[in-house]
Amino acid sequence: xxxxxxxxxxxxxxxxxxxxxxxxxxxxxxxxxxxxxxxxxxxxxxxxxxxxxxxxxxxxxxxxxxxxxxxxxxxxxxxxxxxxxxxxxxxxxxxxxxxxxxxxxxxxxxxxxxxxxxxxxxxxxxxxxxxxxxxxxxxxxxxxxxxxxxxxxxxxxxxxxxxxxxxxxxx
Length: 171
Hints:
Blueprint: H1 7-28, H2 32-37, E1 40-44, E2 59-64, H3 68-72, E3 80-85, H4 87-94, H5 98-120, H6 131-146, H7 154-161
Parallel strand pairs: 1-3
Antiparallel strand pairs: 2-3
Helix pairs in contact: 1-5, 5-6
């Protein structure tokens, strides 16, 4: 399994979630009401030991609750989401360096919350045929949103997710 987040990492994750929500709210014009109607929780492997993750991901968004038909026809006004962060993979790729954790987790959380916004606005379908296209669109949106953010090592993280580097080296 690998090492799990310790309290210092959980604090950084919490900061990344708050920053990501603020950045996405500004970018997409979201209000507090949006977040109240689309609540989400962030969990780690420490919390969800039996969770399964797709290969090669650092986090995974799950929607649960009522189905699309109920939401579309107004019989359900809320969606419930869970972002599962795979802490051993995050710790491995960042090598546990605290200076990389915030920009890395900011990227991961921004990516997952953009998925959530797109699902909640019916801007995409959650079917397997469109999964690669959706991932590419969300990656492009994540990069565009975060390219405006000034944060140490964020450019290194963006290059890593763009495949421009194979590791997160800090020069």
